[in-house]
């Protein structure tokens, strides 16, 4: 009887996570003819109400404490750093999707911005015409043929789908920056990246406050508007309409 091929220990976790994500993303395909598959609507609505209350508390009036206290150049630097820290994950997903040109662009962006761009604080690559090619494992699952699954609204994080939620979990596992050594350095980098990404999202929310409030906050049925807008924009992006062509309020 042939011996099984040994699995490299460093790859065991990522491969298990990928397999689990594929299984989860395929667990509840939408019934034929249903445009917005929302079997958990009652639960989603409760989460949506809490998310809206949280949003209103911190962003009522179109600004945040972060925006008022931190100068615009510093906020842009934080956002650039957060985006640059995501490039290794973009690179891995582009490879998994078979999009070699995107993977090459991701790698060049990370190298240029990390070195010449002072650790990613300045987006040198974009100024040179190497524009962002953002992606995620949710898109990788889409490329592999996994169905969208049911719509979900997550606490604090907001709109998602079963496929994208599974993809978010796998992104944490396959991100090369989450596997650097030693552990103390890895943990500090993770905390720094998480903080920068959080501040970047707060800055985005404040910057586009008027647009978001007009689209969602002032809607008579904000839950339905949130769900439908998110799913439509996400599908547009997955089908090849990129950020330059469509502004995504949930980006």
Show the helix and strand layout.
Layout: H1 9-25, H2 41-59, H3 65-69, H4 72-85, H5 87-96, H6 100-115, H7 124-127, H8 137-143, E1 151-154, E2 158-161, H9 162-174, H10 183-207, H11 209-217, H12 222-238
List keywords for this structure.
3% strand; mainly alpha; 62% helix; globular; 2 strands; two-stranded antiparallel sheet; 12 helices; disordered N terminus; 251 residues
Task: Describe what you observe in this structure.
The protein has 251 residues and is mainly alpha-helical. The chain has one domain (35-238). It contains twelve helices and two strands; from the N terminus they run H-H-H-H-H-H-H-H-E-E-H-H-H-H. It has helices at 9-25, 41-59, 65-69, 72-85, 87-96, 100-115, 124-127, 137-143, 162-174, 183-207, 209-217, 222-238; strands at 151-154, 158-161. Strands 1-2 form a two-stranded antiparallel sheet. Helix 1 packs antiparallel against helix 9 (162-174) and helix 5 packs antiparallel against helix 6.
């Amino acid at each position: 009887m042939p011996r099984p091929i040994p699995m490299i220990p460093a790859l065991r976790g990522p491969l298990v996570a990928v397999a689990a994500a594929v299984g989860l993303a395929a667990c509840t395909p939408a019934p034929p003819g249903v445009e917005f598959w929302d079997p958990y609507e009652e639960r989603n609505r409760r989460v949506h109400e809490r998310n809206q209350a949280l949003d209103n508390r911190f962003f009522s009036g179109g600004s945040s404490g972060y925006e008022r206290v931190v100068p615009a150049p510093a906020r842009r630097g934080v956002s650039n750093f957060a985006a640059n820290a995501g490039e290794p994950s973009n690179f891995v997903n582009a490879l998994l999707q078979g999009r070699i040109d995107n993977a090459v662009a991701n790698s060049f962006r990370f190298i240029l911005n990390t070195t010449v761009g002072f650790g990613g604080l300045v987006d040198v690559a974009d100024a040179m015409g190497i524009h962002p090619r953002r992606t995620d494992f949710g898109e990788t699952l889409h490329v592999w043929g996994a169905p969208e699954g049911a719509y979900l609204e997550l606490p604090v994080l907001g709109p998602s789908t079963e496929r994208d939620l599974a993809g978010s979990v796998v992104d944490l596992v396959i991100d090369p920056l989450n596997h650097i050594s030693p552990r103390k350095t890895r943990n500090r980098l993770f905390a720094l990246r998480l903080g920068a990404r959080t501040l970047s999202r707060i800055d985005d929310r404040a910057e586009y406050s008027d647009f978001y409030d007009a689209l969602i906050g002032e809607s008579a049925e904000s839950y339905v508007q949130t769900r439908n807008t998110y799913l439509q924009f996400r599908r547009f992006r997955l089908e090849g309409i990129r950020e330059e062509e469509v502004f995504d309020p949930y980006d």
